[in-house]
Design goal:
The protein is mostly helical and about 475 residues long. It is built from 19 helices and two strands. It folds into three domains: about 210 residues, Growth Hormone, Chain: A, CATH 1.20.1250.20; about 50 residues; about 210 residues, Up-down Bundle (Growth Hormone, Chain: A), CATH 1.20.1250.20. Strands 1-2 form a two-stranded antiparallel ribbon.
């Protein structure tokens, strides 16, 4: 999980001399493109869901698992993969991740059934989880001058937002031009090229003192998330009062309690729960979950609405998302600069209110909703997401001691993936309630409770954005430090 090494850990690089500038930029490009395809696969599949449903005759729950199998495993394994990269070698784990991710993408493109598609999405996510922490460590290891390193990490981190924005648009084009299988094939040339270039240009590096593996903590995290997501998705289909769902929810709660108690006694925990007594750190993680949950629900509900209710092609549905994508790409860098100048509060509060306004606009969604109105709501959501996303890591890091900056950044990243997973699970279940698995014109009205939920999440982001930037919040961070 760790994107940066803990205190008193120094880097041992295979090459004694720092790489030249051109080679450093090439390494940054290799790492950035690898992260781009990992993030892309969290959203590019959304616009392909109706085509996947028609190919396999899948239920709404099956479509939810097509998205959530990927983000669930990705969120669960980020913490383990960071430690593995430190111990076994960043380049080795990076190359292994590329092989697994690329092979998983090929398998997804060839999947003959929905069950196998979901299974291959899990394989994709295992590879993707190896790439995030290892590539961040490689970038930090390559750029040794502080100012240049900060700029490189800024470029690298922006790949997440760009991938979130490009996913629906690129996916729409590929599905319309070829088929839904093309959204997985597109990963192959990038993955293979990165694999070859990494072997040639990326130096090997290790942490001098790698963190110990925490198998008990890792298992508790995986079981807790899997049980919770399964209960939410299947509970909407068979009822939340059924014995199976109640047991699953109890298992999830028990794993969370067990994780907290176990990690507090461990010298080198997978996740030090004491960090959450820092209000900026805990609040940033909560904001990341809320914002990404809103994004997951936004993309899932809109994709099905645009194609199954309005009858648009995948390409046109992707083009409808252009206002959202444009706002994310254009405004996110501006928000980063504003955060550096004025602090996180203005961007977080304004962005949260923009998400709130977008959700409220879509609570009256109908099959014949005017296109300008829709595009305005989509642009407003993109504006809100772009304003809030950059300050999350900044706020999390500011709420922690400098030596724990990597842990803070990694928790924020994991929180985003957890949020995406929960968003698809919760909003898909809410919108599918009472539809008997049939997505038709009635789906537009069925999404109304979901849009109220998006609005509530936007308001929550705005409130938390204010609270965690107060003097009281900064005092809790100082006490934690």
């Amino acid at each position: 999980m760790r994107f940066m090494d803990t205190v008193n850990t120094r880097e041992r690089v295979a090459e004694q001399a720092a790489p030249g500038r051109r080679r450093r930029l090439l390494i940054l490009g290799i790492c950035s493109m690898s992260l781009l395809i990992v993030g892309l696969d969290a959203t590019i599949v959304n616009v392909a869901l109706p085509s996947i449903q028609h190919s396999f005759g899948s239920s709404l729950a099956g479509l939810q698992w097509t998205v959530d199998a990927y983000t669930l495993v990705l969120a669960s394994l980020l913490m383990l993969s960071g430690s593995a990269a430190d111990r076994l070698g960043r380049r080795r784990v990076f190359q292994t991740g590329l092989i697994v991710f690329t092979a998983g993408s090929l398998a997804c493109a060839l999947a003959p059934s929905l069950v196998l598609l979901v299974a291959f999405r899990v394989a994709q996510a295992i590879g993707g989880a190896m790439l995030g922490p290892s590539t961040m460590s490689i970038v930090r290891n390559t750029f040794t001058e502080p100012r240049e390193r900060a700029q490189a990490i800024g470029v690298f981190a922006s790949m997440f937002g760009i991938s979130m924005a490009l996913g629906p648009v690129l996916g729409g084009f590929l599905v319309s031009a070829i088929s839904w299988r093309a959204v997985f094939v597109v990963n192959l040339p990038v993955g293979l090229a990165a694999l070859v270039l990494a072997a040639r240009f990326v130096p090997e590096s290790h942490a001098l003192r790698a963190r110990r593996v925490d198998p008990v903590g890792q298992v508790l995290v995986i079981v807790a998330l899997a049980a919770l997501i399964y209960a939410i998705i299947e509970g909407g289909r068979i009822g939340f009062g059924t014995t199976r769902i109640v047991i699953l929810l109890a298992v999830a709660a028990g794993c969370v309690i067990g994780l907290v108690r176990y990690e507090r006694r461990r010298v080198e925990p997978l996740l030090d729960v004491r960090f959450f007594t820092s209000a900026p750190f805990a609040g940033a993680a909560a904001i990341a979950v809320c914002l990404s949950a809103a994004l997951g629900g936004f993309l899932f509900m809109n994709t099905l609405y645009l194609q199954d209710v309005r009858g648009l092609s995948a390409l046109h549905a992707g083009l409808f998302m252009l206002p959202t994508a444009t706002m994310m790409i254009v405004v996110a860098p501006i928000s980063g600069r504003l955060t550096g100048r004025f602090g996180a509060r203005p961007s977080m509060c304004t962005g949260g209110l923009a998400v709130l306004a977008s959700g409220l606009m879509l609570t009256c969604l109908a099959p014949e909703t005017a296109t300008p109105f829709l595009l305005g709501a989509y642009a407003l959501f993109g504006l809100g997401f772009a304003l809030v996303s950059p300050p999350i890591a900044h706020t999390a890091v500011s709420g922690m001691p400098p030596a724990q900056a990597g842990v803070a950044s990694a928790v924020a990243t994991t929180s985003r993936q957890v949020g995406l997973t929960l968003g698809v699970a919760v909003f898909g279940t809410v919108a599918g309630d009472g539809l008997d698995g049939v997505i038709g014109r009635g789906f537009a009205h069925a999404t109304h409770p979901g849009w109220w939920g998006v609005a509530v999440l936007g308001l929550t982001v705005a409130v938390l954005g204010y609270l965690i930037t107060t003097r009281w919040a900064y005092r809790t961070a100082e006490r934690r430090a």
